[in-house]
Amino acid sequence: MITLENLEDRLWSGAVILQNVFSPSDCINCFFRILLIKRLSDLFEEESYKAKPRFFIPVISQWNYLQQINWKYWQGT
């Protein structure tokens, strides 16, 4: 389980990395989208163990898949 302090550290580190790429308001939107994707992915994994899930997330949109993407390729570096 992630602690609040650990989450804050990770978010701050991400903000520092992205500050040269995005404006501050775009960074906030980016973080909220990432948190939403993570939460939906977690809910989907929990629901997938039950007989009738409430929603479906394609494999390429699930958090575990997104973590494996080489983001440097997409950034062009």
Relevant terms:
single chain; 77 residues; mainly alpha; globular
Mean pLDDT: 77
The arrangement of helices and strands along the chain is HHHH
Helix content: 55-70%
Largest sheet properties? none
Distance between the termini: 32 Å
Evaluate the radius of gyration.
Answer: 15 Å
Strand content: under 5%
Notes on the structure:
By secondary structure, this protein is mainly alpha-helical. The chain has a domain at 23-75. It is 65% helix and 0% strand. The chain is built from four helices and no strands. The chain starts with a helix and ends with a helix.
Brief write-up:
The chain is mainly α and 77 residues long.
Topology diagram in text:
Elements: H1 4-18, H2 24-48, H3 63-67, H4 71-75
